């Protein structure tokens, strides 16, 4: 799944491809590496198209019978129709009631939206994470730049996650 950005060279090219055409990948950027059972609980925070690596990690953990890590996914999107794989995530909640929880929030909800409203804020995290700030936890974030800056901080500002008690070593950007 690739989001097309108006004027975006790569995403526009990808969206122009037809079935049967080829794309050559010259390499992969190495991101954070996952080790099963390294921590008791992993929190994945996704914004918009940033759901893609979060979904893959959740799928990998839940699909590995040897990995007993609990997963909480917090997923912010613009509108209800921007929430991807909702059915699959709700299915995971039923299949793994003690290990998988998902929280959706939309910043521009439709009239009939039943989802939580707003962005990923301190109060949403406090509500969704009973073990907020726990040292037995790792947090992974992938979202638009403004969301990542708010959660992870910048060179000159502390991010929300640190303010809520997570250590720098617990916080990862995909
Ligand atoms: C490892 C990795 C893999 C990736 N894989 C893919 C991929 O497969 N496909 C793809 O298309 N892109 C991918 N990306 C790109 C990246 O995830 C998106 O470009 C990025 O998340 C932008 O999202 P968006 O434009 O959909 O966000 P938007 O739709 O603009 O926003 C999403 C949500 O963020 C909220 N938000 C905005 N600002 C803030 C804020 N300050 N605080 C809190 N919430 C805020 C909005 O309200 C909204 O709810 C990947 C990136 C990385 C690092």
TrEMBL record:
One Gene Ontology molecular-function label: cytochrome-b5 reductase activity, acting on NAD(P)H
One of the GO BP terms on file: ergosterol biosynthetic process
Record's subcellular location: Mitochondrion outer membrane
GO cellular component: mitochondrial outer membrane
InterPro entries, sorted: CBR-like, Flavoprot_Pyr_Nucl_cyt_Rdtase, FNR_nucleotide-bd, OxRdtase_FAD/NAD-bd, Riboflavin_synthase-like_b-brl
Cofactor(s) required, per the database record: FAD
Membrane topology type: Single-pass membrane protein
Classification via CDD domains: cyt_b5_reduct_like
Coarse class of the protein's main subcellular location: mitochondrion
Annotated positions binding FAD: 3, 9, 11, 52
Record flagged with keyword Flavoprotein: yes
Oxidoreductase FAD/NAD(P)-binding domain ranges (all copies): 44-150
UniProt entry keywords in alphabetical sequence: FAD, Flavoprotein, NAD, Oxidoreductase
Family according to the record: Belongs to the flavoprotein pyridine nucleotide cytochrome reductase family.
Protein name as annotated: NADH-cytochrome b5 reductase
The organism of origin for this protein: Cordyceps javanica
């Amino acid at each position: 799944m690739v989001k097309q950005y108006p004027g975006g060279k790569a995403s526009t090219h990808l969206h122009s491809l037809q079935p049967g055409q080829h794309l050559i990948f010259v390499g992969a950027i190495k991101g954070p590496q996952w080790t099963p059972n390294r921590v008791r609980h992993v929190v994945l925070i996704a914004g918009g198209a940033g759901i893609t690596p979060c979904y893959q990690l959740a799928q990998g953990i839940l699909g590995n019978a040897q990995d007993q890590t609990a997963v909480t996914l917090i997923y912010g999107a613009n509108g209800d129709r921007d929430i991807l794989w909702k059915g699959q995530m709700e299915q995971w909640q039923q299949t793994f009631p003690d290990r998988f929880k998902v929280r959706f929030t939309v910043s521009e909800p439709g009239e009939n939206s039943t989802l939580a409203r707003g962005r990923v804020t301190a109060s949403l995290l406090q509500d969704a994470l009973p073990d907020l700030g726990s040292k037995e936890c790792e947090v992974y974030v992938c979202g638009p730049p403004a969301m990542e800056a708010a959660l992870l901080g910048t060179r000159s500002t502390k991010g929300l996650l640190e303010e809520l008690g997570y250590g720098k070593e617990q916080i990862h950007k995909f």
